[in-house]
Amino acid sequence: MSMWLRLCVLAAGGLGVAVLFLLACFDLPAFGGLWHPYGDRAVHAALARHTANTVSSVNFDQRAFDTLGEESILFASVVGTVALLRQTRDEDRLPPEPVRVAPPVRRYALIALPVTLLIGLYVIAHGQLSPGGGFQGGVVVATSLHLLYIAVDYRALERIRPVGMYEVADAAGEAAYLLVGAAALLTGATFLANFLPYGTFNTLSSGGTVPLLNAAIGVEVACGVVVLLARFLDQAVEIESEGRDDEAEART
What average pLDDT does range 206-224 have in this prediction? Predict the structure, then answer.
C-alpha cells in the first residue's frame, strides 16, 4: 500500500469519526438542563442496588470492567517502574545522609501523619456511601506514610516501608479485584456482576460487591503509589564519562 493510499484511508476514517461525533453532539442534552438520561439511569441503578454514592456505583458496578482497566494501568506502571529502576550489579547503593528538620515542621508532620492516615482509611471504607473511594483514599494513605520522611528523615520512612511487602500487597489488590469478578461467574452471572446481597441502604455493608471492589482498589492504589515513590526516591544517579573519573571525583 502506497503512502498516498494510506493517507486517503486515514482521512476517510477521520472524516467518518468527525461526522459521527458531530451527529452525537447535536443529540446531547442542553447545557445546564434538567434532563439527562444517562445520569438518571445511573442514579436509578445505584439506588436500586443500595449504593448511596452514585459515582462508586458507576465505577465498581455499572462499569466495573472499565475500572479494572484503569487499575491495571497503574499496576502495569508499577511493574514497569520496578523493572526499569531495579538495582543492577554495577551500581553502588549508599545509605542516605540524615538532614536536620525544623522543629515546627517536625511537630506538624508527626501530628498530621496519623490524622491523614485515618482520613485515607475512612475515605476507602466509606467509598460506597460518600464522595471518595479506593482511588482517592489510596493516594491519601500513601501520602500519609511519607509525612514521616518530612518529619524525620528517609531512614525513618524505610523502617515502616518494606518495599517488598508493599509490592506483594499491590499484586494482591489487583488479584482480589479479579477474584471478586471471577466469583460472579460461579453464580451464573457475568464477570464482575454485582452478585452479593445489596444489604441495608446507607450502611457500610451496602452495595453488594461495590465495597469489596472498592477496598481492593484502595489496597492496590495505596501500595502501588508507595512502591512508585520508593523506586524514584531511591534513585541518585551519577553518570561518569569513561576516562574522566578523576575530574568527576574532583567535582563531587
Answer: 96
